[in-house]
């Protein structure tokens, strides 16, 4: 192991993914090494950098201004997930990222998680509680909500979305999971396959902070053994099409369950191009309905950036 201050080497990094949603991770316990927007974009560049859908900096909550709110909410939240999209823009939350973040902290020996135990981590969308499962991790993602509550409650639709490959604009519903999502209902398998998400879909009207767009196809039948099944493709804000989006899967399940009406199940299986994640709705201790996300987390590499690489890239 090399010291990350060695004159011969640059910053230490790890690379990991959750259902194909991949991230570059760095430990910066004292918050001494923030990266600029440009540096993050260079790092996440798939041709000239390491490549990733996002960059995650692990910082002790006490070392970040945002961490003060996290510690006030839960003094056990020692670590803060400082999350950025591939273009260097900041996001409030990342569902796949939380699992990979915890896995990173564990593999680096920065935290310990006993069997049956839980870890609280700080994010810009509040504290997330994470537990280990046989297949990875499950995360209490907190409550979901409509972005435009009055429109949503009235019609279950608050916008339309246009995208290349869609024959016509489709109705959509915008949901917040701490970060914004717009869920588009599709009807045919061919519609999902025909989508071209190389460009950014047009959401009309777009939520105030932009949005991630999920195109969702219900399975036929939608529900088996009290579990709802959907397939989804996603265009992420600040990234483009990705193989998976955890908060997007939660939003997609929430919208589909809302559209399905009374009697729709609480448990959902969401198939994404990179795998499958589980979503479950349950009553939170705060009296609101919470969303639980479960899925795998995999570390694929560790390394050291060449000296000056962030400047040269
Ligand atoms: N892939 C993430 C979401 C990452 C942030 C998103 N692009 C945004 O800007 O909100 C996930 O797994 O949730």
What does this structure look like?
This protein is of the alpha+beta class and 313 residues long. The chain has two domains: 12-135 and 297-312, Diaminopimelate Epimerase, Chain A, domain 1 (Roll); 145-294, Diaminopimelate Epimerase, Chain A, domain 1. The protein is built from seven helices and 19 strands. The strands form two sheets. Strands 5, 6, 7, 8, 9, 10, 11, 12, 13, 14, 15, 16, 17 and 18 form a 14-stranded mixed sheet that branches. β1 and β2 (21-27) form a beta hairpin. The model is unreliable at 1-8 (pLDDT under 50). It binds ligand LBFN2T5F. Residues 21, 54, 85, 91, 94-97, 179, 212, 236-239, 242, 245-248 line the site of the ligand N[C@@H](CCC[C@H](N)C(=O)O)C(=O)O.
